[in-house]
Specification:
This protein is mainly alpha-helical and 73 residues long. It has one domain. It contains three helices and two strands; from the N terminus they run H-H-E-E-H. Strand 1 and strand 2 form a beta hairpin.
Length: 73
């Protein structure tokens, strides 16, 4: 099933996306470059309070979590 929220993200991009679940997050240095990619894909944004996950990013994270579980099984 292909959907607009299906992305083939690199491991560092997944880590950055997962880190954005928390409000007022400080991204680890290793994921800062990946964050720029997430912004370009519309999965993250930079607001007045700092980096944040978008609703599209949340959907991607949920769908990706299930995909990763299926692959591990």
């Amino acid at each position: 099933m292909s959907d607009e929220s299906d992305f083939d993200l690199r491991p560092d991009q997944w880590e950055a996306l997962k880190a954005l679940r928390s409000p007022f997050v400080r991204l680890p240095a290793a994921t800062r470059f990946a964050f720029n990619d997430l912004v370009a894909l519309g999965l993250a944004t930079v607001g007045e309070r700092g980096p944040a996950i978008t609703s599209k990013g949340r959907k991607t994270l949920v769908r990706g979590s299930f995909s990763l579980l299926d692959a591990a099984a």
